[in-house]
Amino acid sequence: MIKNSESKYKDYVADRSKYPQEEDGKAIIDLDSHKFTKIWQGPQHPGVTGNMSVELIVNGDEIVDAKTRVGYLHRGFEKLMERRRYIQCFPIVCRICVPEPDTNEYCVSAAMEELAGIEIPEKAKWLRTLNLEMSRVTSFLMWAGGQAGSLGMNTIPQWTVGMRDFWLDLFEEMTGGRVYHMYMIPGGVRKDLPEGFRDRVRAQIIQTKELLVDVERSFFNNAIVKSRLIGLGHIPKEMISEYGITGPNARACGVENDIRITNPYLKYPELELEMITGTESDAYERAKLRYRELHQSLNLISQILDKMPEGGEIQAKLPNVLHWKIPAGQTYKRAESTRGEHGFYMVSDGTKYPRRIYARGASYTHAISVLEKLACNITISDLAALMVSLHTCPPEIER
Amino acid sequence: MENLVKRIKEMIPVENFKKQNSMLCFFTVQEQHIELILSYLKNNEGYTDLIFLQAVDYLEENKFMMTYMLNNLERGMNLGINVFIDREKAEMTSIHRLWSHVWQFQREIHELYGINFPGSPRVTEPFVLEGWEEMPPMRRDFDTMEYVERTFYPRDGRETSDPKKHMKEKLYKNYTEVPKIRREND
């Protein structure tokens, strides 16, 4: 049994008595002294879903300085949306995040509806909630594979990504798309559930829970996993507001920040949902917390399937969307993604085109400021595990 | 929320107050007061989290609108603070002393809008554009089409053909040459 006190990072303070020497709390790094080496980790590596580099300065195999370099995935979505009508933004926004595109769709739809003063039908709210929770499950399954893969356990990614594929089958049945769904549109959703869908989802939930028992046995009770993750990437409570940390990364140190509970939207107030928090705030604690949240999402899906009415309208009446002018104004809509707070800031100037749409992803701070801070004093081999434990997603950094 | 605005109005001039929904309000302050008001909200009113800092280009009014979005975790409230700055001068007070992650928003705005933040750390480092020598691309007068036509060459496009004709010529060619079965009458 590995105890917290046995972890190599627990209460670890790097010995800076020899080098690098520090000045004003910052290491003095002279590459010409041949004591340090600059290496690049990335842009393709096991730490992230996407392309992102980390420029490392190492002393032996210990990282003394890290800088995140992005730019490999910049597709200019925000600029593109300024030149498109509101309805034409939908095929774009879901592509901002690959593992969990539905949060983008929800935030943009909700922002347009608020600015245009549209109220969506009850059934559409239920379907949106179901869609969001299913996307959380797929994202968590992908994360579980990434976290195990970053430590060299290549069996668990096969299991969880395989299970994710069955969930994608359900998405295909529900929305017509596997990865990008384009399901939520202003005024509601595109279509109702197919016949027999609820039973298939229930069966899928049972299968997923069975798999998670195996994951728990092989991952969370694994001595190597414990020795490598306990104490890694410890986030103190003071850093949460200072660095804009949200989601599971904030909850793992006891901060009660879940937008589904603090700022409830859609049908979350009608569901039994409790705040899951941790105490230790290291990579192992974050992994355990995400595992519990995955179970929570599966339970929420069951609740939604039980409570959602059979019939009802799924789409509010909209004007001709090709000539749709939204009144001038600005708003910010946010939702809880698996990585933390995901939001869209939308400014309308009363024309057919949005003045500005800004996508705020949780990884924007987690993968840059926070990662650069936490990567110091760990070894190169643990960097990938740290990045996955922060659940970084580069596409939402660059948009 | 109205009480909060009253307290702020006693300190500095506030314009365009708007309650967008039960959890979100916007108001506008002047550029010179931004550091003061953010620091007051962070330390005294519980708006401890800066969610984002972004710019909006109002080309026709020759202005940039900066938006600072704050979050009060205890009350679940969001507060959007707008500041209008001159587009020609394009310079804004840096608030990197208030939050440790602000520098990266300021770096992005510097690169994509060309707004300078004097004193902000790493503000001139490239963010997503490497070796960019054009106008900052998120400005509304940046012509994407003109840039693309000037920078990239047009592709020839794919060969197209009439499917019916193509199938007849390429795929069913041999069928026409199949020998007929010889009959006694032939």
List the quaternary state of the chains.
Answer: heterodimer
CATH class of chain B: Alpha Beta
Uncertain parts of chain A: none
- The total count of strands of chain A amounts to 10
Structure description:
- The complex is a heterodimer of chains A (about 400) and B (about 190).
- Chain A has about 400 residues and is an alpha+beta fold.
- Chain A has one domain (about 75-395): Orthogonal Bundle (Cytochrome-c3 Hydrogenase, chain B), CATH 1.10.645.10.
- Chain A is built from 14 helices and ten strands.
- In chain A, strand 1 and strand 2 form a beta hairpin.
- In chain A, helix 4 (about 120-150) runs antiparallel to helix 5 and helix 4 (about 120-150) packs antiparallel against helix 13 (about 380-390).
- The model of chain A has no long low-confidence stretch (mean pLDDT about 85).
- Chain B contains five helices and five strands.
- Chain B is α+β, with helices and mostly antiparallel strands and about 190 residues long.
- Chain B has a five-stranded mixed sheet, with helices on one face.
- Chain B is elongated, with a radius of gyration of 30 Å.
- Chain B has helices at about 1-10, 35-45, 100-115, 145-150, 165-170; strands spanning about 15-20, 25-30, 50-60, 65-70, 75-85.
- The mean pLDDT of chain B is about 85.
- The chains are: A alpha+beta (about 400), B alpha+beta (about 190).
What is the fold's blueprint, element by element?
The complex is a heterodimer of chains A (399) and B (186).
Chain A (H helix, E strand, L loop, with lengths): L21 E2 L2 E2 L9 E5 L11 E7 L2 E8 L7 H6 L7 H4 L8 H15 L5 H29 L4 H21 L8 E2 L2 E2 L7 H24 L2 H7 L8 H5 L5 H4 L7 H4 L20 H25 L21 E8 L4 E8 L5 E7 L2 H12 L5 H10 L5 H4 L1
Antiparallel strand pairs in A: 1-2, 3-4, 4-5, 6-7, 8-9, 9-10
Helix pairs in contact in A: 4-5, 4-11, 4-13, 5-6, 6-11
Chain B lengths: L1 H10 L3 E7 L2 E5 L5 H11 L4 E10 L4 E10 L4 E10 L15 H12 L30 H8 L11 H9 L15
Parallel strand pairs in B: 2-5
Antiparallel strand pairs in B: 1-2, 3-4, 4-5
